[in-house]
Specification:
Elements (H helix, E strand, L loop, with lengths): L16 E2 L15 E6 L8 E3 L2 E8 L2 E8 L5 E8 L16 E3 L2 E5 L4 E6 L4 E6 H5 L13 E3 L2 E8 L2 E7 L5 E5 L10 E5 L2 E7 L3 E6 L5 E6 L12 E3 L2 E6 L4 E7 L7 E7 L10 E3 L2 E7 L12 E7 L5 E5 L5 E6 L2 E6 L3 E6 L7 E6 L11 E3 L2 E5 L3 E6 L45 H33 L5 H27 L6 H14 L7 H6 L3 H31 L12 H17 L3 H29 L1
Parallel strand pairs: 1-27
Antiparallel strand pairs: 2-33, 3-4, 4-5, 5-6, 7-8, 8-9, 9-10, 11-12, 12-13, 13-14, 15-16, 16-17, 17-18, 19-20, 20-21, 21-22, 23-24, 24-25, 25-26, 27-28, 28-29, 29-30, 31-32, 32-33
């Protein structure tokens, strides 16, 4: 099998195709041989390969790295640190782009817009931040433009004024040309040859443009939209036609490019039959194969809904569709579709334009959503998720190297976990989970929180009256207060599900549970003993009982905050950190409330100051959320 390499995220020809042959038509029951597996840090970067080495990007708490691995063993050959971690505790942690190999150089880009060049031994030759240099716009979720290197030029979408697309000198990073005024998006540029002329296509935020690859002259521009409109999936070119798609039910468009004497573009047709998001389609035998996303955007906490389709490129009519694949990155090699879906399954099917004909599948990285496109070289497929990388041999079994008879690894040897869809906890799933909640939602959530606090107080008061009527005495104040906080915690935890279903609109009440835990913890801090507290300590037994309460409540607070954070991450909620950050604003009111209680006591002190305490916590958290999103 020839070693043709995989120098770019989409392969040698930028189209998801490989010239490799002798791939297996089926796999054993335990799957194809696993050559190696290893832990790998956060990131969505894919692999590139040349000879006995492969390259990718990832991050740990120590920083972001470009790394070179041994293709046979997965062991680290070298790594180069280029930046601090990107959103290490956020929803999309780590680098997005994939390195590019060109000659004996490795080119990379970072979420900050840093672009650099390394030798194949890991020495930095140059770096430049293109977002800062050209005032780039349109990549607020992190720069994702994998460098395209052609004829000594590093070509990138940037999105600055007079710099929607730029070309840098591959030798030193100096600017060769810059073109256009449109803001960028997340898909790299696509080099094409049209009518004998080498050009580059930029699918930007609100327009698609074509530039001469040598001079940067804009040959044509087609406006697509206004305002926010991201693109992450690659266009597909089959001369003279250019096809592209987008998320958010955008559908797809087929364009026809004019000749060199009259460079222009004409829209042939539009269809809603294929909306790509994070996984790109491929072209083969006159058809496009890809995942038609039916959600408004790909989901990080569950498999995205939609159909894997085959559509005719010229008519955009569907040839077949299936729900057996899911959202998958797809490659074409040896007459086969090689698909890696977002639930971590590797799937093999024929490139049949009449029906879906699956040959084999195996689960490799279950338990985490997988959005990284696979790479194919020498019969080996390289895949990864946010914690692990795997190399699988999908060539004919008689071609696999047994390495002196060593035991082969199988998929069963890869650490995997079962993924549980926790979406039902939300009651109604927000369509745009990654967007900042609007003012209407924030007001409604706040009012729902206040209502839960009042209902909890009323429930405890009614219970207190019932007990007094039955036993002749009131609940002890500390028992009543903990009962109120426990009730608010339970109602806050259940309220998101119940209220969302009842209102048929997402209603977020979990912050009430956090506030109840916070207030219970603060109440255990004794700045002085009240008369009632001294009465509590009259016996050794009561003293022992009161001693363990602060510890239990403090542990409950830590466990509750940790559980909230993990749930928000699992459900891709943008509020994961915000409502863990507003406690400081409530603390001064908490201190005043405790001081007044020691001096005067009374239910009215609690009744009046607890809502104020919650309000300070809630709106401070909201301000932190808005500030963080504005800074992103």
């Amino acid at each position: 099998m020839d070693d043709i390499g995989w120098p770019f995220v989409r392969g040698p020809s930028y189209d998801g195709h490989s010239a490799e042959t002798h791939l297996a038509d089926s796999w054993p029951p335990d799957g194809p041989p696993v050559l190696w597996t290893r832990s790998l840090g956060q990131g969505y970067s894919g692999f590139v390969a040349a000879g006995s080495r492969i390259y990718t990007q990832y991050q740990t708490l120590a920083g972001q790295f470009v790394t070179c691995l041994d293709a046979d063993t997965g062991e680290t050959v070298w790594r180069h640190r280029y930046d601090w971690p990107f959103e290490a505790t956020g929803l999309y942690p780590g680098p997005r782009a994939t390195p590019t190999l060109a000659g004996d150089r490795v080119y990379f880009s970072a979420p900050s817009g840093l672009v650099g060049c390394l030798t194949c031994e890991g020495s930095l030759l140059w770096s430049i931040n293109v977002i800062k240099k050209f005032d780039g716009k349109g990549t607020g979720f992190g720069y994702s433009g994998t460098p395209v290197v052609e004829d000594g030029r590093v070509i990138l979408p940037v999105g600055g004024k007079r710099a929607s697309v730029v070309a840098l000198d591959a030798r030193d990073g100096s600017t060769l040309w810059q073109s256009g005024d449109d803001s960028a998006s997340y898909v790299p540029v696509l080099p094409i040859t049209h009518d004998g002329r080498r050009q580059v296509i930029g699918l930007l935020e609100n327009a698609i443009v074509c530039c001469d690859i040598a001079t940067g002259k804009q040959l044509w521009r087609l406006e697509l939209s206004h305002g926010y409109n991201e693109h992450a999936a690659w266009p597909v070119y089959a001369e003279p036609y250019l096809w592209f798609s987008g998320p958010f039910h955008f559908g797809c468009d087929l364009l026809r490019l004019g000749g060199a004497d009259a460079p222009r573009v004409k829209t042939v047709r539009h269809s809603q039959g294929m909306s790509n998001d994070v996984c790109s389609s491929v072209f083969n035998s006159g058809c496009l194969f890809g995942f038609d996303l039916r959600d408004v955007q790909a989901k990080l906490h569950r498999a995205s809904r939609g159909q894997f389709r085959c559509i005719d490129m010229l008519t955009l009519d569907e040839r077949w569709s299936t729900d057996q694949v899911g959202q998958a990155s797809v490659l074409v090699a040896d007459g086969k579709l090689i698909m890696f879906n977002d639930t971590g399954q590797l799937i093999l099917a024929r490139t049949d334009t009449e029906k879906y004909d699956e040959l084999a599948r195996i689960s490799l990285l279950a338990g985490e959503i997988c959005w990284t496109a696979p790479a194919l070289d020498r019969g080996r497929i390289y895949v990864r998720n946010q914690t692990r990388a795997v190399c699988v041999f999908i060539g004919r079994l008689d071609l696999v190297d047994d390495k002196d008879g060593a035991k082969r690894l199988t998929a069963a040897d890869i650490p995997q976990r079962e993924h549980h869809d926790l979406t039902p906890l939300l009651g109604v799933e927000p369509e745009y989970a990654f967007d900042v909640p609007g003012p209407k939602w924030l007001r409604e959530w706040y009012l729902a929180g206040l209502a839960i606090l009042f209902i909890s107080a009323a429930a405890v008061l009614l219970a207190g009256w019932a007990i007094r009527a039955h036993r002749g005495d009131w609940l002890r104040p500390w028992v009543a207060k903990l009962s109120f906080q426990a009730t608010a915690f339970v109602l806050g935890a259940a309220g998101t599900t119940a209220l969302s279903v009842w209102r048929n609109d997402f209603t977020f009440t979990w912050p009430v549970s956090l506030f109840a835990l916070f207030q219970a913890t603060v109440d255990q801090v004794r700045l002085g003993r009240s008369a009632e507290s001294r009465d509590e300590l009259e016996t050794t037994t009561v003293e022992r009982n009161s001693a363990w309460r602060p510890r239990v409540v403090a542990i409950a607070f830590l466990v509750g905050c940790t559980g909230y954070y993990l749930l928000c991450r699992e459900l891709s909620l943008l509020t994961e950190w915000a409502f863990l950050s507003g406690f400081g604003a409530a603390l001064p009111i908490s201190v005043i409330r405790l001081w007044l209680l020691r001096r005067h006591g009374g239910v009215w002190t609690e009744f009046l100051l607890t809502p104020l305490e919650f309000s300070a916590y809630y709106w401070a958290s909201v301000e932190i959320l808005l500030w963080k999103c504005k800074m992103a």
